Amino acid sequence: MGLLRTTRVNTDCLMGLWHITEDYDTLSRLVALDDDDLRWIGHFKNEARKVELLSVRALLQTMTTPEARIVYNEMRKPFLVDGSQNISISHSNRYTSILLSSTQRVGIDLEYMSHRIERVASKFIAPSEYITPRKGMKRIHLYIHWCAKEAMYKICDKQELNFQEHILVEPFEVSSSGSGYVTGTVSKRDRQEQFSLHYELLNNYVIVYTSKPGQSPSPLLTGTTPVAE
Question: Rounded distance, CA 54 to CA 32, Å?
Fold first, then answer.
């Protein structure tokens, strides 16, 4: 399948989605890998993880150029080596997603709804947050909350944020259309920032992403080995 779609979120924000149906050999022929890339990927023993890494590179090169490379800071926040755009990455099961912008901060999260998230809800849902009592919708509601909080965590540069204490989602009901917007707030010490987040249900996946004008992309990073998440 490969590239599922690219969506222009706004005038300067592009979201890409890749459906992983290829094996390692097929994906490796689609992307430009140098010796450093091959050595780094070779460190991973799990074949599924290698395929996941290559899908990120394939999607990025489809959205940008074959020369595009990713590096990470000490918080595992990704950057493009050339500093041309802000980037956020997420992958789950057989899907990979990327959000890019040259002028806006970005955050995206993608989750396959594979387990009973209700069992761990107490670890990320605050007592003040609303969870629907509707039978059959609670699981989806919780996944949207989780993805929204992950997207805000990423757009805030993966700072030390507690999902219950510092990142909250305002009450909402899941749209019958399978897509909509939620509002979230990040509050910590003297910082308070509000975000509008778009969510989408795709098969058994939830995608949530947000963008906001802010810092420019990081300048050219040197002295690091480009790697793909």
Answer: 10
Angle between helical axes of 47-63 and 35-42 (0-180°, round to 10):
150
Work out whether the CA dihedral 148, 153, 154, 155 comes out positive or negative. positive
Q: How many CB atoms lie within 10 A of CB 158?
A: 14
Pick the CATH number of 2-106 from 2.40.50.140, 2.40.320.10, 3.30.70.920, 3.90.470.20: 3.90.470.20
The span from the CA of 170 to the CA of 159, in Å, is 21
How are strands ordered across the β-sheet holding 2-10? Answer: 2-10, 13-19, 95-101, 86-92
Query: For the chain, which ranges sit under pLDDT 70?
Result: 1, 215-229
How many C-beta atoms surround the C-beta of residue 36 within 10 A?
12
Structure tokens of 183? 């509002």
Contacts 24+ apart (CB under 8 A), 180-189: 182/144, 182/148, 182/208, 184/148, 184/149, 184/152, 184/210, 186/152, 186/156, 186/161, 188/159, 188/161
* pLDDT per residue as tens digits for the range 97-139: 999 999 999 999 999 998 789 999 999 999 999 999 988 899 9
Contact 16, 63 (CB under 8 A): yes
Say if residues 205 and 111 touch (Cβ distance below 8 Å).
Answer: yes
Q: Where are the domains of the chain?
A: 2-106, 109-213
Angle at 109 between CA 178 and CA 54, to 5 degrees: 115
